[in-house]
Structure formats: structure tokens, C-alpha cells
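User: I'm curious whether this sequence folds into something compact or stays loose and floppy. Could you predict its structure so I can see for myself?
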Amino acid sequence: MSTSPRLPRGITRRSLLRSGSGLALGAGLAVGAGVAGATPAAATNGVGQTGAPLCQQPGDSASRVGLGSGDLAIPYYREHDNTWGYVFGDSFDTGNGYLGSPVMLNQASYDPSGSPISFTWAMPDGQARQLFDYAHNADNGYGTESTRIPNDCIEFGGRTYLQYTSVVHGIGGDPLPAGEDGSLMSGVAYSDDHGRTWTDYPYHWAGQYQGVNQSMYGMWSFAGIDPDGWLYIFSKRWNGTHKNTADQGAIQLFRINPGDFRAGDFGAQQNWAYNGGWYWATDGTPPASLFGPGNNIGEFSVKRIGDRYCMSYFDVTDGSISTRSASRPDAPWSAPTPRIVGSDTWPPAHWGRPQVENLYGGYIHPGSAGPNSLTLIVSQWTAQGAYRVLQFDGIAS
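Assistant: Here's the prediction. I'll summarize afterward.
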């Protein structure tokens, strides 16, 4: 069973992008009142939570800065001024006009105790609009691309980095033949003015439509700079469409000196490889998958929270957001546990879990209270054809 985002009959996410219009959130969808004031005792697995909606609510903080609906809302820490950024994917304004992707909203201060996130301003100039300068459904010099979907964002050393996937087709209801990932390429853009203007690094990782189907560099998550000085990065095949049947849950790990990363010297990475045993390869040996073939997974997130590395991801096959953790990026990881599910009627591991129909995403907030009290940002595609994101607190890793 897959709970990848579904659209009304005859409507695809791609057709919405082409028309430049969105659909309003249906009034019949029940939502929770949020989790403000949740006590630590209640914050074990998010049991009983329904999620605080962070957009698609009339008069909410997102609408005040120009965003009506959007998905992902990938959180990152803006170390230069101690604020927080949230990077959305395909987004619409309050009049259902298409804003683009990626789009960034910001928050002046974050409360890890469970208060719903409130956005303070948007990039680049206070009101929400697309961060990157490119055209949709056009050839921007690399081949025709539909949209650029953000996967993660990090700031260090005065520079902000955003890793993205350029998608050709396969979004939402579009067909995607078995074994194809639908991507054009992946890239890293950087900003030296904290998100106002962006420059692409010249090197891109080829995707299916540039001749490399199932590239393990399709989607990244920045785990952060460890106390040992290395920047640790996890990556996997592009499966933001949730339709990549060849995904198989593979995730790889590499690390790089932050200075080399800033310089765009991506060839300086060291790969977590396996040859009779695990080791850090410096000779170009490719990284090995951390986990054996398993369920197809979509969006994922890895962050160092306290003294643990925590991972969350959308398990496409299981229809859930699962988490796992480890003491180090290169240490053994715990078994995955479903935390937020699309249905509480199957299997037993779903029973009693908070339920979100048509869920995906599941990004770890780097300001989470602790490794067993994570804040997750979960996306939902509703039957009425609208995006939104929900905040869940107190989720165990």
C-alpha cells in the first residue's frame, strides 16, 4: 500500500503548476487545535496528536507573509542571527496563484516546548516568492525541467546552502514508468546574503534525463557539522514523487571538510564504504547503502539532536513517517519505528499512532527539545488538491 499524494480525478500536480492556480482546502477536513502546552510526559510518540497546521488556515502567520499553501517547510537554523528558516516546495499565494519552488518563510524565535510555529517574515524581501531565478516547464540550460524541489538547507560560516532536485516529470498524478526516477539533475545553490539571492554551484549530479537513472545523489540531508569537524551528509535516490519503484530504501553517507564544501570541491568527500567491513574511503570508492533492500522511501531528514543522530523518513510502502537513531553518523542505526501513520487500521504497528491521511515528508526540526522529543514537520496532500504542513511535537527517535 502506498499513500503517496493523491489528486482529484482529472487533476495532476503538474497541471496545477502549468495553469498557475491552486485549489482551496475543503471545509470538510478536520484538523486538530495544535499541541501548545503539551507536557513532556505526553510527548513520547505523539500519541493522540493531530498536528498543528502551519498554513492553509485563514489569517494564519503564513498568509500574513504571502503564502497560502505549500509543502515540505524544511526547517534549518540561521546561525548568523539566531533565527529559523523553513523552505517550502511548490507553493501558492493566498489567492491560489503559483509562487514557485523553493519558497522560504522565517521565524524570529522557536519554542521547543510545543508551541506552534509562527512565521515572522519571508524571503527575499518580507513577502513570499520563489528563491531561485529559473523558469518552470522550460529549458534553463540543462534540459527541460518542471520544477526544482528543495531537499534540505543548512547555514554555516556565513553562507547558506540549499540542495535541490530538478524534476522532469512524475510529480503527483503524472505517470512514472517502473524503475524510473523522473529527475533531471540535482544541485546545490548557495546564498551569501542569508537567502535573498542565490548562486548555483557549477557542478550538478546528473539524473535520469541526463543519463543517470537512480543516482544515489538525488536527495540529500545535511546532518550537520559534527564536533569532529566534518560535515556529514546523507543522500539517496530521488523519490519525491513517491512513485520510484526502484528506490528500495537505500541511503548512503559521506562527509566533507566544510571549507572544501564551501569551495565547491565536492570531489574531496570521503565515503562511508564497505569491503568486508565499514571504513572511510578516500580513494573514490562509492559509499555503500546503510540499509539493505527494503521499503521504498521518499523524503528524509537526518539531524544531530543533543548527543544522538536522528533520522526520519516517509516510508512509501508502509504509509508512515518512521524514525530511527544512532550515536554517530557512522554507527549502527536503530530499527525503524512508525510514528505518524496514514491509517490506524493496519498493521498493528500503526495502532494508536497519530494519523494523517495522504501524508509525506516528516522533517526533523534542528531545534527539537531532544532525541526522544522531536518536532517533525509533516506534509499533507488533501483530497481537495491543497498542500499544507503540520507540526508534531514530542516524537521519539
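Summary: The longest helix spans residues 13-19. The helical segments are 13-19, 61-64, 258-262.
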